[in-house]
């Protein structure tokens, strides 16, 4: 018997019967996605993390796909109806979307896979479209805006864990040092621009471009 299997059996022995529920399971999925990535989510792995027999999970979820779909929907349930209406309401939904993805590393890789299986993710889209149409956008423009916003938010969230902390001077010094080490003849423009990069947060960059998406002449509400 391996050390891991012995540990799993010991954990199951100390887990009270009937203590397993959807909330505990989904919390374990969230922790696994955050610490090990989506690929690490398996019925057996989650059961081991919870100290229960794998068959116990099947009383709550049919399979891994239904487990991940429930996890995605559970996260999107945290997106609330914005306090403002129209364009500002749509912007607030985009900001919440961005924050939710950043708060759950790995979610960005599977959110779209389970969009139609996530009532709360669909509700976010419903609200987004409603706010844009209420602001005076025609349907075609609203569709194009929503598609662009979705790509902008997902791309920004994908980059989030890889960017430099604006509050860490040492980190910015390292970044500038890396660019200064580039060949000046091959990359003169990149080196020059690097000296002027402001130490702004990712949230500031996100908000600035979110405003520009809606302020673009082609995207102004009628």
UniProtKB/TrEMBL annotation:
The GO biological-process annotations, alphabetized, read as: negative regulation of DNA-templated transcription
**Boundaries of every HTH tetR-type domain copy:** 19-79
**Key word Membrane present:** no
One GO MF term on file is:
transcription cis-regulatory region binding
**SUPFAM superfamilies listed in its UniProt record:** Homeodomain-like, Tetracyclin repressor-like, C-terminal domain
- Location of the DNA-binding region in this protein: 42-61
Q: Which InterPro entries match?
A: Homeodomain-like_sf (IPR009057), HTH-type_TetR-like_transc_reg (IPR050109), HTH_TetR (IPR001647), Repressor_TetR_C (IPR004111), Tet_transcr_reg_TetR-rel_C_sf (IPR036271)
Keyword list, A-Z: DNA-binding, Transcription, Transcription regulation
**Pfam families the record matches:** TetR_C_1 (PF02909), TetR_N (PF00440)
The identity of this protein, by name, is: TetR family transcriptional regulator
Species annotation: Nocardia terpenica
């Amino acid at each position: 018997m391996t050390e891991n299997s012995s540990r799993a059996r010991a954990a199951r022995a100390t887990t009270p019967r009937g203590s397993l529920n959807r909330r505990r399971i989904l919390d374990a999925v969230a922790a696994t996605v955050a610490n090990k990535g989506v690929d690490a989510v398996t019925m057996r792995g989650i059961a081991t993390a919870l100290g229960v027999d794998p068959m116990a999970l099947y009383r709550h979820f049919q399979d891994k796909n239904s487990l991940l779909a429930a996890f995605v929907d559970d996260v999107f349930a945290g997106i609330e109806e914005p306090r403002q209406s129209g364009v500002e309401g749509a912007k607030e939904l985009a900001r919440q979307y961005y924050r939710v993805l950043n708060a759950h590393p790995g979610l960005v890789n599977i959110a779209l896979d389970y969009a139609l299986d996530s009532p709360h993710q669909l509700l976010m889209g419903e609200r987004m479209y409603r706010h844009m149409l209420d602001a005076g956008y025609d349907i075609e423009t609203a569709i194009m805006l929503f598609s662009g916003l979705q790509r902008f938010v997902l791309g920004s969230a994908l980059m989030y864990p890889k960017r430099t902390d604006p509050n860490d001077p040492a980190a910015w010094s390292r970044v500038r040092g890396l660019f200064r080490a580039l060949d000046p003849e091959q990359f003169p423009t990149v080196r020059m621009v690097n000296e002027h990069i402001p130490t702004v947060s990712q949230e500031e960059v996100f908000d600035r471009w979110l405003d520009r998406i809606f302020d673009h002449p082609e995207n102004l509400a009628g």
